[in-house]
Amino acid sequence: MKRIFLLSITILSLLITSCNSDFFISGNFSDDGLNNYTPSPVIPPAGEKAGNGGSGTKEVTYGEWSDINHYDFYKNLFTNYKEIGYFGFETRYMVTVNVNSNIGNPVGDALVELYDPEVPENKLFSAKTNLKGKAYLFPSYDVTGKSVPVKVIIAEKKQFQTFDETGKVITDEVISAEKKFEQTLLNNDNSISITLDDDSQEISILDLMFVIDTTSSMGDVLSYLKLEYSDIINKIKTANTKYNKINLALLFYRDTGDEYITRYFDFTENIGQQEGNLIKQFVNGGGDFPEASDRALAEAVGKKWTVDNAIRLIFHVCDAPPHSDQRSQSTYYDAIKTAAQKGIRIIPVASSGIDLTSEYLLRQEAIMTGGTYIFLTDFNGKNEKESPQTVGAFTEDDNLNKCIVRVVNEYLTTN
């Protein structure tokens, strides 16, 4: 666990105001709330290998919470906690765009661009639709009730393919894209529904990247992932047979002054190769609380992701925020906006020692990219709760393996 000095905890306690009675806050605290909060101990070693007595360590549980699905709850946090506005994020004015075909099917992986009602050439936010045909856009100010310009861009049918000697497709390119423009008045719930003349797009590719903090406090989580990685990927493949291509990438990061800032292994379909790359990693460095997560995410979203007709997911496994200098803040924020535009869903996995400000940062990287938030909830089956999570009644899994597989499966289906 990152070492958090007593002074930092005291300052954090003073910043926190009493919260809404509907909030569920997990953490070690006494009857007088968060003021006496103490961090939980470091999580135990990962334990048994996948398939040996049930994949995953059942003593360490994880919760999952979607701020998109509980958006009113999320907005209430802004009146109760100052830390949620950290790093310049603006997530209070979400616009949901529903894109469907003319026969009622949701259109996935369509690029939706929201423009300024007053200056139409000024793009406010871009995001891609999920398999349910929903794109989540975050303008910098409230556009409720305004007639907002929206552009929807979908890839045309794939027309150019290259084959190897066995007949397997090795190149599958999109020639061009179709563009549609709508001038639409927002509904009362800040949503827009757009119907295209085209049928829904066939999506059968998953790009899956793990971005993992490998500083000294992350040893237990890294050990766990080494044991579980192949089992997780194989479960995803088994449950989603329509996805004929699953591309896997790994990006590890530490901090400035360490042996490396980032270390990357590019997309491949070879599970064993990536498992081998993961097994070779070890933890070291860090020292102070923040790490180079801004650099890591900026590099991650800039890699060669599948451009069209794919599902793209990043699991960001970490226990600390980026540094708070202006350059780090800008790099981090720009990476999140770029991820949204490319349709890369960031799913943070908050490990032991996450403080309140870090929690909010991770939840904002999740909500702005259409992701969800995963966090450590229980230590060694003793109901010793981790750092305070300002969430409602969340979904809990008895190990991280199960949690990751469940979340990926949800992104790969229209249900």
Walk me through this protein's architecture.
With 415 residues, the chain is of the alpha/beta class. The protein folds into 2 domains: 6-89 and 204-411, Rossmann fold, CATH 3.40.50.410; 95-195, Immunoglobulin-like (Sandwich), CATH 2.60.40. The protein contains 8 helices and 20 strands. The strands form 5 sheets. Strands 2, 12, 13, 14, 15, 16, 17, 18 and 20 form a 9-stranded mixed sheet that branches. Strands 5-4-7-10 form a 4-stranded antiparallel sheet. A 3-stranded mixed sheet has the order 6-3-11, with no helix packed on it. Strand 16, helix 7 and strand 17 form a beta-alpha-beta unit. Helix 3 packs across helix 8 and helix 5 (293-301) packs parallel to helix 6. The longest helix is centred in the middle third of the chain and has 21 residues, at 219-239. The two termini are 37 Å apart.
Short description:
The chain is an alpha/beta fold and 415 residues long. It has helices at residues 6-15, 71-76, 219-239, 271-279, 293-301, 326-342, 356-368, 400-411; strands spanning 24-26, 61-65, 95-100, 111-115, 123-128, 134-137, 147-155, 160-163, 169-173, 177-185, 191-195, 205-213, 245-253, 262-268, 311-318, 344-350, 373-379, 384-385, 389-391, 395-397.
What characteristics describe this protein?
single chain, 415 residues, alpha/beta, Rossmann fold, Immunoglobulin-like, 2 domains, nine-stranded mixed β-sheet, four-stranded antiparallel β-sheet, 23% helix, globular, disordered N terminus
Give the CA-CA distance, first to last residue: 37 Å
Show unreliable segments: 1-58, 380-384
Strand content: 25-35%
Mind summarizing the main beta sheet? 9 strands, mixed
Structural class: alpha/beta
CATH level-two architecture of the largest domain? 3-Layer(aba) Sandwich
Bulk shape: globular
Helical proportion, percent range: 10-25%
Compute the number of helices.
8
The CATH topology name of the largest domain reads: Rossmann fold
Cα-atom radius of gyration: 21 Å
Q: How many individual β-strands?
A: 20
Integer tally of domains? 2
Reading the helices and strands in chain order gives: HEEHEEEEEEEEEEHEEHHEHEHEEEEH
Rounded mean pLDDT is 81
CATH superfamily of the largest domain: von Willebrand factor, type A domain
